Amino acid sequence: MGPDDALKLAHWVEGLFAEVSPQQAEFLANQFAPFDAAIVEEEVTRFRRQFDTLNIANLLRRITDRQQQRTIKPNRSEEKDDIDRAWKQVDTKLDRLSDTELAARKRAIIDRRPDLAPFLRRSDPRTSAVLRSLLAAD
After folding, report:
1. Considering the entire predicted model, what is its pTM?
2. Which of 56, 67, 98, 115 is 20 to 30 A away from residue 24, measured at CA?
3. What is the dihedral of CA 51, 52, 58, 62, to 10 degrees?
């Protein structure tokens, strides 16, 4: 939001809560600026319904949480879909290999990384996610 919108919202908050000083309103205007105006309005309205006095830290935390909820959820879904697609490609690639080929690749990984040998020696390439990821990166 722009500085004018932030200032307008800060003055609106000042009108809703009698104890807000002009300095606090100016502080709020600076704090509101990075947020979406609709989120700030929504959270201030919700906050006013719940509380008679203003707790600036609590209000700003609620606005921040709401902004993060709105921006993070779509990204998580897309990221999860990308990860699922990548794992499906790995699974498809590794499922085509015979047991002999998988064993040879596992042996090559253990030869390159002997520190992993105790952990990987008993791992089955068909079921171990760690080993499958190492085989896919190979």
Report:
1. 0.50
2. 67
3. 50
